[in-house]
TrEMBL record, chain B:
Species in which this protein is naturally found: Anaerotignum lactatifermentans
Residue ranges of every copy of the Putative Se/S carrier protein-like domain listed in the record: 9-75
Lineage: superkingdom: Bacteria
InterPro entries: Se/S_carrier-like
Pfam families, per the entry: Se_S_carrier
Protein name, UniProt field: Putative Se/S carrier protein-like domain-containing protein
Lineage, broadest ranks: Bacteria, Bacillati, Bacillota, Clostridia, Lachnospirales
Length: 322, 78
C-alpha cells in the first residue's frame, strides 16, 4: 500500500469484514469461503446468505488445510468473490493467499482477506498477492491496543458506506463525504488507541518482521517437538511445514480443554485459551466441537526457558490426569 | 477583532489529506500550520493550511512534487 487514503481505521477485524462483506456482496451474488474461518467472516456471510446471497464453503483435509483442488469447481457464473483467512486461529495453518489471489484475478472476482492471525508476522503484499481488501486487527501480532483495526482497499475499489455521520469535514452536505478514507470512517476514531498501534508498528519495523517471525516459529517448533511425543497429547494442524502461524493447539486425552487451560493458569501461571475458538467449522472438521482445544500462542517475548516450563506443565498434567 | 492579513490557504476534502500535507510541509521546511477552516471558504467544519502569502510558491511546488490531494487553494484576508 502506498496510498494512506486507502487505509481505513475501524475497531477490529470483525468491523472491517462487516464493512467489506455487507458492501460488496448482496442478493443474487455467490461467494466462496473456507471451513477455516473465524465467526468474524462466517457470521456476516451467513447473514448475507439469509438475505439471498449464495455461499459455498470449501472444506479442509484432516490436517485442517484448505482443499484448493475444490476451488475451481466452486466457481459459478454469479460468483462475485472469495473471502478467507490468511491463517487459522485454531490450528495455525496458513492459507496460500497468493494462490487464491491469482485464482481470483484469473476469474475476475474479488478477494477479501482476513489477516487477523498474520499481520505483524508475515509479509503481505496486496498487489502481488491479488488482494482487493485486507482486513486486520491491531490487538494481535500488530501488538496494538484492543479496539484498533482497519482495512486496506486496493486502488479503484469502492465500498458503499457502512455507517454515515460525523466526518469532521463538509458539515453542510447531506451525504457523507465520498473521499477515502473518510468515506468509510464515520464518527470519532479511537485516536489514542491508534497512537498506540502506531508506536507498536514502529517497534515492529525496527525489530523486523523476519526476526519476529523466526523467533516465534522457533519457540513454536521447540514446544511442538516437546509435546508431540507425550502419549496422551493430540496436536491439531499441519506441522509438515514450519511456515505456519506460531500457535500450537492440543488436547490431553479426553480432558475438557477448559480444565487443562484452567490448570495451566492456576498451577503454572501459563496463559492459554481453551474451549471453542470462534471457528465452529474448523472444530467440526477436527472433531473437537465438544472438547474444544488448548491453544498455546508464541510471541517474540517468550523465552526458551518459558517454553520448557510449558512442555513440562503439559507432561505433568498428562501424567496426573490419565 | 484580530488584525487580518493576506494569507495563502489550502483546503481539503478529508482530515487525512490535511495531515499528509502537514507532514510533507514540515519535512520540506515549508512554513505554515493547520487552522480551523475559515468561514469565507466554507461554513462546514474541518482544517486548512495557512501560510504567509510570500511563501506560496513553495507550497505550490510541494503540492505538485508530492502529489498531495487537496480541495482548493485560496488567497484570503483572514
Amino acid at each position: 500500500m502506498d496510498d494512506p487514503a486507502r487505509v481505513v481505521f475501524t475497531a477490529n477485524s470483525t468491523q472491517s469484514l462487516n464493512i467489506a462483506i455487507s458492501g460488496l456482496f448482496g442478493k443474487g451474488d455467490h461467494v466462496i469461503t473456507t471451513a477455516m474461518e473465524h465467526n468474524s467472516v462466517l457470521r456476516p456471510l451467513y447473514r448475507k446468505e439469509a438475505e439471498g446471497m449464495e455461499l459455498t464453503i470449501i472444506p479442509c483435509d484432516e490436517k485442517g488445510t484448505v482443499r484448493y483442488d475444490l476451488l475451481e469447481q466452486a466457481v459459478k457464473p454469479n460468483t462475485k468473490g472469495i473471502v478467507c483467512t490468511h491463517g487459522s486461529n485454531l490450528t495455525g495453518n496458513l492459507v496460500d493467499i497468493k494462490r487464491i489471489g491469482t485464482f481470483s484475478r484469473e476469474k475476475g472476482i474479488l478477494f477479501v482477506v482476513d489477516a487477523s492471525q498474520t499481520a505483524g508476522v508475515f509479509p503481505i503484499h496486496m498487489e502481488e498477492m491479488g488482494i482487493d481488501v485486507l482486513c486486520f486487527t491491531g490487538h494481535k501480532s500488530l501488538l496494538g491496543p484492543q479496539g484498533t483495526g482497519g482495512m486496506c482497499l486496493r486502488k479503484g475499489l469502492e465500498i458503499p458506506s457502512f455507517c454515515v455521520g460525523g466526518s469532521g469535514v463538509q458539515s453542510y452536505s447531506k451525504t457523507h463525504p465520498a473521499q477515502m478514507p473518510t468515506h468509510l470512517e464515520a464518527g470519532t476514531l479511537n485516536g489514542h488507541g491508534i497512537a498506540g498501534l502506531s508506536a507498536a508498528l514502529d517497534w515492529i519495523n525496527k525489530t523486523g518482521l523476519t526476526a519476529i517471525r523466526e523467533t516465534e516459529q522457533k519457540r513454536m517448533r521447540q514446544f511442538y517437538e516437546g509435546v508431540r511425543k507425550i502419549p496422551q497429547v493430540t496436536v491439531y494442524g499441519d506441522f509438515s511445514t514450519w511456515e505456519r502461524a506460531p500457535i500450537v493447539s492440543l488436547n490431553i486425552g479426553d480432558n475438557p480443554s477448559e480444565d487443562v487451560c484452567d490448570e495451566l493458569a492456576v498451577g503454572y501461571g501459563i496463559a492459554t485459551r481453551g474451549g471453542a475458538h470462534c471457528a465452529p467449522l474448523m472444530h467440526e472438521q477436527l472433531g473437537t466441537v465438544e472438547q474444544g482445544a488448548v491453544r498455546f500462542s508464541f510471541c517474540y517475548f517468550i523465552t526458551e526457558e518459558e517454553v520448557e516450563k510449558a512442555i513440562l506443565a503439559v507432561k505433568e498434567i498428562a501424567e496426573a490426569w490419565t | 477583532m484580530r488584525p487580518k492579513e493576506l494569507c495563502f490557504l489550502v483546503a481539503f476534502h478529508t482530515t487525512t489529506e490535511a495531515l499528509a500535507l502537514e507532514e510533507a510541509a514540515r519535512s520540506a521546511d515549508v512554513p505554515g500550520r493547520l487552522i480551523p477552516i475559515p468561514t469565507q471558504i466554507t461554513a462546514g467544519c474541518g482544517l486548512a493550511w495557512r501560510m504567509p502569502i510570500g511563501e506560496k510558491e513553495k507550497m505550490k511546488s510541494l503540492l505538485t512534487k508530492c502529489d498531495l490531494k487537496y480541495e482548493n487553494i485560496y488567497e484570503l484576508m483572514i
